[in-house]
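Quick one, probably user error.
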């Protein structure tokens, strides 16, 4: 039992939940390592959403709102951590939700899709094809889903698929706590924040922004500036860590 007054209560509860999801097969064991790496960067952010991440979230909403065919790509970690938030964002943005996995099996895809549906998401399912120019199983997607998308939101992404999607002419929104990762630097827009904090910001902005505000945010989008602000915030916290 983890006592609620433990100073790391939320973190420990999340770790227990992910470990349970790994035992059930929703999360890959390798995904636990990814979560730990991200959590380390979250310490440098003070485990809170920064002003620049909030602005990036609004810009992400603008990209989704102005898209012709937006898709939210979901892996095991994202489903385990934020299935409800994904469902709420889908309702706010009108985007398709599609499961895409590195460690892919039919059973795992079915489990994750079921988890998302129970949380209220309308999952775009069906036969996946090897459509992306990748040598691993993230190449599998639906022809009318991610392959046809013009904007793809990829929480907890890996850099090679992000690069391929951008190379195909798609706008890629990444949620990545590491502003130095290949994903963060390759994406059209990176939100440097924890996924369960970032997704509600995007969903709220999807309903709050006007069409004119959306067009303006897309026009002035500067991912390099967002990454620099995130690094500056982390550096400032490190400089004052012992003050």
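Nope, works fine. Designed sequence:
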């Amino acid at each position: 039992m983890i006592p609620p007054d433990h100073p790391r209560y939320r973190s420990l509860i999340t770790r227990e939940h992910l470990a349970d999801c790994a035992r059930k097969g929703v999360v890959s064991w390798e995904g636990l390592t990814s979560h730990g790496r991200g959590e380390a960067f979250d310490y440098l952010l003070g485990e809170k959403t920064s002003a620049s991440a909030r602005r990036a979230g609004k810009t992400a909403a603008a990209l989704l709102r102005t898209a012709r065919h937006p898709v939210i790509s979901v892996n095991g970690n994202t489903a385990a951590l934020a299935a409800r938030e994904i469902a709420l964002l889908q309702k706010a943005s009108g985007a398709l939700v599609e499961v895409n996995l590195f460690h892919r099996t039919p059973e795992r895809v079915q489990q994750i899709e079921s988890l998302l549906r129970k949380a209220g998401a309308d999952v775009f399912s069906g036969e996946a094809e090897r459509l992306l120019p990748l040598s691993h199983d993230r190449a599998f997607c639906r022809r009318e889903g991610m392959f046809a998308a013009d904007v793809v939101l990829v929480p907890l992404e890996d850099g090679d698929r992000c690069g391929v999607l951008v190379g195909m002419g798609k706008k890629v929104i990444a949620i990545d706590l590491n502003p130095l990762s290949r994903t963060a630097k390759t994406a059209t827009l990176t939100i440097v924040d924890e996924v369960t904090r970032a997704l509600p910001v995007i969903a709220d902005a999807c309903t709050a922004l006007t069409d004119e505000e959306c067009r303006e945010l897309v026009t002035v989008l500067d991912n390099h500036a967002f990454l620099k602000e995130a690094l500056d915030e982390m550096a400032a916290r490190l400089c004052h860590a012992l003050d």
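The radius of gyration is 17 Å.
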